Amino acid sequence: MPADRPPFEDIYRDYLGRIYAYVRAQVGTSADAEDITAQVFMNAYQAYARFEARNTTPSAWLFRIARNATLDHFRAHGRRERLRRTIEHQPMPEEDPAGQAEDHIQYRALLLQVAQLPERQRDAISLRHSGLSFHEVGRLMGCSEDAAKMLYHRALRALRELVQKERA
Amino acid sequence: MSEQEEELEVQALQRQLDDAFETTRPRPGFDDELWLRMQSSRPAKSRLGDAFAGFWEGIREVPAVPAAAVAAVLVVAVGIGIFAYSGLGRGGGGAATSSALSEGASRNYATGTFGRLPTPVFNGGAKSAPTSQGLADTASPEYLGPVQLTWTGKLDLTITTAPVFRYHEPSTNTADQFATALGAVLRERPAGFLGSYSASTYTLKVRGTVQSPQSSPAFFIFSSLSMPPIDAAGAGPSDLADIFLAQHSLSPQWSYAVAVDGSGDPVKVVYQRQFDAPGYGPAFLIDGSARRTGIEVDLSNNRPVLVSGLLPVSLDVASYKVVSAADAIQSAVASSGQGVSATPAPTVKLTQAELVYVLVPAGDHSFYEPAFLFSGSFQLDGKSFLKQVLVPAVDPSQRSP
Q1: Which of B10, B27, B39 to mutate to test the interface with A (most CBs of A within 10 A)?
Q2: How far apart are CA A103 and CA B20, in angstroms?
Q3: A136 in a domain, yes or no?
Q4: Whole-structure pTM value
Q5: Which residues of B touch A129 (CB under 8 A)?
Q6: Mean pLDDT of all residues in A78-93
Q7: Any chain A CB within 8 A of the CB of B1?
């Protein structure tokens, strides 16, 4: 293993929570988030031998895999349908008792609202608040750093409107 | 709402988002569950498990050699220069075989008491394996064409008989006893396994003999994230593996040599099983890729992440007549020219030969039978290969057709 590449186990420990939160903000339910997170790390584990630390950071590499896995998930299941079911089931208690303890109600609601944003806005907010720099967000989303900043701030305002509408 | 108020609201929203992303985490236990799943799904080439699971994988059945002394010849070509083993030569202690076979008994076993032995059946075919003894995922181009073999080495064979070992197929009861001795509790009996068990820091799976691809009864310990590292100041990988195996009463009870591959993560420590052939000495057990097998301990940051190996089984032993050195050499060389190729077959000089043991599954009883492993290197298109030819050692008259 190259000296500049940490053991995969370290990456797993460091990023599991962050990747899960990112995915959760995309899909809205803990069950889907677990499935996709599992897929992300299985894929990453298989591909780690090809990971080049000099070309990218583990963070950017993992979030790219997570982003692709989430898009695949939506393609396979239909984002609109999943989201409808998510929102319809929002007031229902979590079936899994462990899931109830997992989330703060308030934050869960906020992440659900993030999940309702248009895809690029949702992505910009999720990646940025998962700890990525605007430069990394831009690279992942195929735009410049400035464009990523602009997209993020537009997304924030859209989210704020959603939150206000929900309160009203 | 003023612009300033709006900005304050946005900032508050940002803080809420920070908290939401910071505190949203999977349910407790998910990390361990996923880690175990990942360990279980490791690519076959990257763990010893596949050395068992793919015992004969990728090895092509060679057409019978007309009038030859052997019924089948197994040819394996292995890319050289990528062998990563080191530290060979430390002999292990213990009895020659399992608890059912004492060292003394192994010297006085009866001749041919198992009757005619099953002839090895090779599922795959000649394999020009881009393998590195299974220890690295280095990709080398495979060479699958025919070769012209010659023998230029020296094979001094003074023995006329060699022991053959037989074991009863382990049952679920055997697997349960093995797990209980480790302190693991039965969880389920998944397809293809005798049992899946859990302990506080790992999941254990036990499997019987696999007929196709042939592989020995084996155990697999997948550690969870809660498996602590082995704390032993100044200890090397083989010391750490020794400690882990001793702690879990898994130290080999058979003769072995230790090989360590520290070229990647995890570091792999392999206890290569040897069978004692009186008059010859220790002979390694090999798998279908000609890799020496036994027990493997994979260590990452001094933490065992995967431990796999031969499930202890009770062995019976009987002596069988073996072919002469001349016959073995003739059989090896006669395996030239397999396959069809428009280009001239490269000439390969086989220069070395050793007695090894191979698994021959046979239903309720399976066998470890002696064989000769010939090897020689050659160059093709600027690449180095190691050609290996495996010839059954038991005399054809004592094997079933």
Answers
A1: B27
A2: 9
A3: yes
A4: 0.62
A5: 14, 17-18, 20-21
A6: 52
A7: no
